[in-house]
Structures are given as C-alpha cells and as structure tokens.
Amino acid sequence: MSELGLLDTGGILRQAWVAPDRTSSGLGWEHAYLSTQRETPYHSTFDGAPTHLLILHLSGPVTVRRRSGRSMRAQRIPAGGLFVHPAGRALDVELQGGLDTVHLYLSDSALQQAHGGREAVELAEELGSSDPLIEQVMLTLDGVVRQWEPSARTYVDHLVGMLAAQLAHAHTAGRPAAPAGAMSGLTSQQLVSARELMEQHISDPLRVSDLAAATGLSASQFSRQFRTSTGKSPHQFLLQLRLDHARRMLRTTVLPIPDVAVHCGFSHQEHLTRVMRAKLGTTPAAVRRAG
C-alpha cells in the first residue's frame, strides 16, 4: 500500500486559507496523513473523503458551525477540542475565527482492523468532543513529524494503531461490546517469531504490520497482545533490542561508533547517543571505554 497523501484528505488542506507548517508527506505513512497548520475563517463544503478526519484544536476557543442534513449545529470549541468526521460523508463546515490545528486523516482499513475484523464500525460525527488519549497521540505524531527519523516507522505504526483502537472503542455511532474470550497475550511461539523478526531486521525500518503478519494477527491485535506479554509496545521492545545490540558491538568490536549506530537501526551517531543517554544514562563512548 502506498502512503496516504494530500489527495486522500478531501480538499480542506488544499484551500487558500490553510497554510501547513509540516506534514507527513513523503514519510511513507500508509494508514495516516498528518498536517499541522494555521487556518483562517472560512465556510465551505467538501465531498466525502476516503479517510476519517480528526481535527485537534491547538488554540481557541473558536466557534465552528457544521451542517448535517437539514440541521445546523454551532459549538464554541476550546484548545484540546476534537472535530471528528467519518469517511465517505460530505462536509459542510464554517470556521468563525483563526485557529491552529493538527489534522489527522486515518484510513478506513486501519479503523476496521482496530475493531478486530468483526462487523464494520462507523464513526460518529463529533463537534468539540474531548479525548485526552487521542489528543496525546496526535500531539505525539506531530512531534514525530517535527523530528522525523526513519527508525521511528515502527513507533508511528504503533501510535496509529492505538489511535484507531481508541476511535473504534469510544467514538463510534454504535459502541459494540468487546467479544468474550479475548486473548490475553501472545503465545510463546508468536513471541519468538516476533522477536526473531526484530533481530533479523535490527538495522531496518520495521512495520508493526510485518510483525503482526509473522504471528497471524492483525496489527491492532498484535500491538495489544504484545504489550500484554512483554509490558512494552513493539517500538519500545525493538528499541531495547537495538540498544542491547549496540552495547554488545561497542564492547566487542572496534567498528567506529557511527557505523555501530547505523548497524543497530539508529539514524546516526547523535541519534544513538541521545537514546542511550535517555534510556541508560550513558553514552556510546563511555560504553566503549568501559569495555
């Protein structure tokens, strides 16, 4: 699947009143497109898009009006408020003041997969709702775009899966109950398969969907069961493997530190140094000196 892009967004971001500061364009995100921008007042209509739209208000309060069928609803939305619009539906919206926003466009396949592959789930239209988890995930994704590194690909997959799961759980038109007998963690063989794949691709960007395929699960199921089994997200676990591998190489080889960093899946020496200092309280040079 190719990455989501501007053509998947339904038209809002192509308007003259929107000036994006940064987007996920070109980063290879398959199931989400993110854009952070300043919007000026407007009133317009848009055809239904193939993606679900979430807008996080970074400033405010500001009044937003939204037409649905014959009814018109207006809401004064503060910073942190959410605008949710399902895929495939035309949108009639009016923004009555300047506003800083993060837009997140989510593929329907990601939403349905997060729902566990059961009957199709449909998002509700929301205007000014609040969800601290979705707010934090969207801000984190914006931070990833701001300081992008290829090794963050697995992290992005995890965050998008988390966001999709929260939408499927708490923002649907009809909230179905979780199925009985849900799994509680990966089997031993599934965990071995996932770890072996991580170790085989220690220096490569690795998608959660690839790890899930090795275990026979959907990406959202895999992420949940992996955390249950290990206490860590796939990204956190892979990062720890990379750090462990880097420490072994620093102690047992004379390979230059920049080469060790790349060999272990870090973008460059500074990236390895930053992560090692944050996670282990030391640096690659100090590990090498300690032997």
TrEMBL record:
Endoplasmic reticulum keyword on record: no
Return the SMART domains for the record.
Answer: HTH_ARAC
Q: Any idea which UniProt keywords this protein has? A: DNA-binding, Transcription, Transcription regulation
Checking Pfam families in the record gives: HTH_18
Q: Which residues form the HTH araC/xylS-type domain?
A: 192-290
Task: Fetch the InterPro entries from UniProt.
Answer: AraC_XylS_family_regulators (IPR050204), Homeodomain-like_sf (IPR009057), HTH_AraC (IPR018060)
Superkingdom = Bacteria
Which PROSITE patterns does the entry link to? HTH_ARAC_FAMILY_2 (PS01124)
Q: Does the keyword Transcription regulation apply?
A: yes
Recorded protein name is Helix-turn-helix domain-containing protein
Q: Which organism is it from?
A: Streptomyces mirabilis
The taxonomy runs: Bacteria, Bacillati, Actinomycetota, Actinomycetes, Kitasatosporales
